[in-house]
Amino acid sequence: MKLSFKKINITPQKPCMQAGYVQREHPFESVHDDIYSTIFVLENQTSKVVWIGADLIGFNEEFIQLLINKTKKYDIYLDSSNLVLGGTHNHSAPTVNVIYDEYFGEPNLEYVEYLSDLYTDSIVELWNENGVEVQAKYCSAMIDGLYSNRNDVNKLSDKVVHLLGFFNKNELIATFCNMSCHNTVLGPKNYQITSEVFGMTRNHLEERLGGIFLMSNGNAGDMGNRQYRTGQEFVDCEKMAANLADQIVRKHTDWQSLSLEHLEYKHIEFRKTIILDSNIYIEKIAEFNERLKHTDDLTERKVLLSGIAGFEHKMSYGDGPHELIMPAEIFTFDDLQIICIPGELGSILGLQIKAASKKRHSILWGYTGPCDLGYIIDEEAYKLECQETNTTIYPCGTPEEYRDYIISEL
Fold first, then answer.
1. Among residues 52, 405, 334, which one has the least CA distance to residue 216?
2. How many CB atoms lie within 10 A of CB 320?
3. Are 268 and 200 found together in one domain?
């Protein structure tokens, strides 16, 4: 098995809107720390695949198609079977996903073009070079006291960090790192570009373990760190990243060899018809606007404003029946299964999917492109008033049906 890899700087050169918070009113003002993207081209006996992880909120179909068209000019033919783009769900990076433009403002097309050119050049370079011979190994770490279910700290949540390491002559040269937590400490008042917790954690891990890291998010739809921090400043972000990296380094299990020599790919789609009624959302918008008049609490205002934006988004579909199409991509190696979800899957649902895999190890890679499914949260969360259920279009119980369909296809 061979691996080609590269980390590139994707920091915008000119001010543009940041994705993540509806409260932001203007483009970013400065750069606190550069944002990056890591690209792996993995070649085994049956396949050649491109994995991209980025310090961004996510990608969309238009960007993916733009990249496919550009690489095709170099006789590289990519599609969902050999290309995965995943954002860390960073709320302090430029928006490149036009799905979110009604919330965060339109993406800067100059930056989108710049980013797609960077990726094209890097993919062409890595695709055509003779990769390094590697041995894949796996380990994991259980995180304690840094994040949990953000709506109920006592609720079951996924705190396992998965590390898929690639070794050359016993030297760790590249690692795919997967954890399930919202990549958000800084709030809507932050107008600086930053890689947030995942990027800062990556910097620590690369320094302490060596090689480069591709950071990926998992089933983090309802996972966060708000119960474990005292503020929303850079010092809080840096403290969490340092503690997270320290736990990963100290607590990870022994590296275990695994085979990735053969790959089977499957694209699946769960379909269901739902009925939308705008009268429900009109009442909720009026209620939330009234409550906004009586609170200055930043977290509460964020939930209310996000809820209003979500209700308005659901109203934009129009009343009546609508067909849901909820896809997923399943990559099955000899000893590993990676399930890619183009949205924000809840922690419990993700744990159940991974537990159903028959492979030695399973990883759920969330926020993969086209990242357009939104929140997919368990039934119990619908009893709460929370950001996830306010904004999701899926009726209570539909996420469980989606989970069951994925499990049936594993």
1. 52
2. 10
3. no
**CA–CA distances in Å: residue 213 to residues 31, 219, 312, 386:** 22, 19, 38, 33
Quickly list H helices, 73-105.
101-104
- State the pTM of this model: 0.93
Number of domains in the chain: 2
In the beta sheet, which residues pair with residue 366? 341
Last residue of a domain, one of 262, 290, 322: 262
Burial of 297 (0-12, 13-18, 19+ CB in 10 A): exposed
Q: Say if residue 227 is in the same domain as residue 334.
A: no
195: containing domain: 1-262
* Strand 135-142 to 160-168 pairing: antiparallel
Residue in 262, 303, 321 with CA at minimum distance from that of residue 387:
303
- Are 308 and 241 contained in the same domain? no
- Do 173 and 308 lie in one domain? The reply is no
One-letter amino acid for residue 203 of the chain: N
CA distance 255 to 278: 53
Q: What are phi and psi of 110, to 5 degrees?
A: -65, -40
Residues 320, 290 share a domain = yes
Q: Cα–chain-centroid distance for residue 88?
A: 4
Residues 278 and 253 in one domain: no
Q: What is the pLDDT of residues 31-62, one digit of tens each?
A: 999 999 999 999 999 999 999 999 999 998 99
Strand spans (E) along 158-239: 160-168, 171-179, 192-193, 212-217, 223-224
d(CA 344, CA 93): 18
Phi and psi angles of residue 145, each rounded to the nearest 5 degrees, phi first: 75, 20
Tens digit of pLDDT for each residue in 187-237?
889 999 999 999 999 999 999 999 999 999 999 999 999 889 888 899 999
| Domain closes at, from 209, 239, 262 | 262
Tokens of 105: 């403002």
Whether residues 256 and 314 share a domain: the answer is: no
